[in-house]
Amino acid sequence: MTTVHAAVAEVLAGHGQALFGVLGDANMQYVADFINGGGSYIGAIDERGAVMMAIGYARRLHRVGVVTVTHGPGLTNTLTSLVEAVRSRTPLVLLTGDTPPVPDYVQLLDVGAAVAPTGAHYRRVVAAETVADELSAALRRAQADRLPVVLDIPFHLLSREVILPRRPGPIPERQAVRPDPDALDEALGIIASASRPVVLAGRGAALCDAREPLLALAHALGAPVATTLLGRDLFRGDPCDLGVLGTVSHDIAIETVGASDCVIAFGAGLNQYTTAHGWLADGRAVVHVDDDQGRLDRYTPVTAGIVGDAAVVARAMTEQLEAAGHSPSGFRSPALADRLAARDPRADFTDASTTEFLDARTAMIELDEILPADRVIVSDVGRYVIAPWKYLHVPEPLSFTHTAAFGSIGLGIAAGVGASAADRTRPTVVIAGDGGAMMGLIEFTTAVREKLPLVVIVVNDRCYGAEWAQMEKYGIDPALSLIPWPSFETMASAFGGHGLTVRTAGDLKRIPDLIAEGKLPLMVDLHIDPAVVIGDIR
Length: 538
What we know:
Blueprint: E1 2-3, H1 4-14, E2 19-21, H2 28-36, E3 41-43, H3 47-61, E4 65-68, H4 73-76, H5 79-87, E5 92-96, H6 111-115, E6 121-124, H7 131-145, E7 148-152, E8 161-162, H8 181-192, E9 197-201, H9 203-207, H10 211-221, E10 225-227, E11 241-244, H11 251-258, E12 262-266, E13 285-290, E14 304-307, H12 310-323, H13 334-342, H14 360-370, E15 376-379, H15 386-391, E16 400-402, H16 412-422, E17 428-433, H17 434-440, H18 444-449, E18 454-460, H19 465-473, H20 488-494, E19 498-502, H21 505-508, H22 511-516, E20 522-527
Helix pairs in contact: 1-2, 1-7, 3-5, 3-16, 10-12
């Protein structure tokens, strides 16, 4: 026999799960059991941050993230991050618990009702003897549905005795889905008749290692390749890689896709940003491949849809095209490759740097060159993001994520802490605006405590930048949005980390030395001018 709280810890340990959280009455017993049993636990300062750490961990490792908080306000503090997990399709289990059965208990809350608007699944443990099975089922459902599951383990059950749970089996990976032959034939008919095709890959394609099958298909079709933002750099190194497609595309990508007559998208959501508000589907055929039927036609009307694994479908398409003697088009041309190779990103804009401010676009191009090539990038969201989203690269797509799915600033630092905890072998670089950094700053102390190789670049325009732009639009003095923040360099040092203030490109060049010297975690206060128009992703 054992207790419910010991059973919870044993199931988590059996699944090999790391655990993030904030302690309270609803969870401190099983967290203690988990730690005492050798489990990896990282305690956050705030519940919103704890969930974001689990999200960063899950997205970096492509596995279920697990986080635990107490009841009442412990749960309500997670709701913004929980919606972020739902909208980003992150597999996550959030453990909480109903309050003690005491009338008018101060933290009393209807857990199911609180969770419902977020879109997360909700499960409640109703009997002590089912807790192990319920927790294992929650982990499996989160993985299968790519969504968070909130598991309510009521406080009054924690000390009850149960039979020692059986050793849990591994969480099954999603299996490759083979396409329906008729759907494949329909799509191939459209693709084979195209004279200017483009192959587009999203994060779903990266998750199933589809780079080589997709490049083989692109060569068979004579098609340039491109990615979504979350699939970024899947094709890096290919001479006809157009980069990220959508509202952050460069001019050659826009021109090339504009001239295309067919886009074949694999594992891509085709949302309004990837499609540039529908432009992608305007006047050209769109073939959409995804292993989730619910994703087809969700955001963008498509000419043909195929349910299947990106790598499996790409191989099947290539085999059938070759068997039919299909000749590649000339759209994937040496001339296009030469233009892409000669492209200078600095030609996209006029550098607005001064002795007081560095242009954010110039800064990101410089950072792309001087940061360690083997890195993880985590982006918060804000007006500045078009600069890192255009100019910062990663070694492969799973080394990049953002916290923009719900449009909330302030989530990036905590997500970066989770991603860094998942992979301590290389630096994780968080790009955050000054407002978002101030919101999430407290979790920098978690990075300090855990001695994580984290670098936080604060793009600091001394205001809420989007509001500056909107106030100008409405004829209101934008200076009203200015906020005299404290020095981020000073705050980083006060928290036990390291700081650097950057106003010029020369100042940026100190970052590699600080990383090499182990001056981590590091917070870089990058001063930019709020009056400089960086661009817009809307």
